[in-house]
Design goal:
This protein has helices at residues 14-22, 64-70, 139-178; strands at 2-10, 33-43, 50-59, 74-84, 89-96, 103-113, 121-131. With 179 residues, it is α+β, with helices and mostly antiparallel strands. Strands 1-7-6-5-4-3-2 form a 7-stranded antiparallel beta sheet. It is globular and about 60 Å long. The model has no long low-confidence stretch (mean pLDDT 90).
């Protein structure tokens, strides 16, 4: 089993970063995310907490041998999220559905205001990658390879979110100037 952890501080307030998270896909930095479908969404009327369940279609660039053995390069991820506007937290948990009997990838992401600067948002990300089943003998190599891919995608994902944040800030500036 391999663990992945990352943290980052976005130099934008929690509300802006939370908005950017919902506008993250599609974007040019994360072309491997092909489609996002909202399966279920509701707001708790007493707390204002938004709960969302999404299915994410991902197309990875994998070697031809892997495509032949596993039947393709498209996989699906189920994501659950909760946005608590009172506590100012956005928590997302995801799990791969495709080939999860061979490789399980569970991820947790959290956004919350920076305790030292309310104009900044702290992002934390953790993931657990575990090979099993028929891949058990090759588990360490597969987990290392997947950890490396996950790490690369995590970096690209943060860059993609920064790109969306830049777009939102430009839109806000344009709206302010138009008034």
């Amino acid at each position: 089993m391999r663990l992945f952890e990352a943290a980052h501080v976005f130099k934008h307030d929690w509300e802006t970063v939370s908005l950017a998270n919902w506008r993250k896909y599609p974007n040019s930095k994360t072309p491997h995310v092909r489609h996002v479908e909202i399966l279920n969404q509701d707001v708790d009327p007493s707390t204002g907490v938004l709960r969302t369940e999404r299915l994410i279609m991902v197309q990875q660039n994998v070697p031809a041998l892997v495509r032949r053995v596993f039947g393709g390069d498209t996989s699906y991820v189920l994501e659950y999220s909760e946005v608590d506007p009172q506590q100012k937290t956005l928590v997302m948990q995801s799990q791969n559905l495709t080939f999860s009997n061979l490789l399980s990838v569970g991820e947790r992401i959290e956004f919350r205001p920076d305790a030292q600067d309310a104009g900044h948002t702290v992002f934390t990300q953790s993931a657990q990658l575990k090979a099993s089943g028929a891949l058990f003998r090759l588990a360490n190599k597969i987990e290392d390879l997947c950890w490396s891919r996950f790490s690369d995608n995590a970096q690209v994902g943060r860059l993609g979110l920064e790109q969306v944040l830049t777009t939102i800030m430009a839109e806000r500036k344009a709206m302010t100037q138009a008034q």
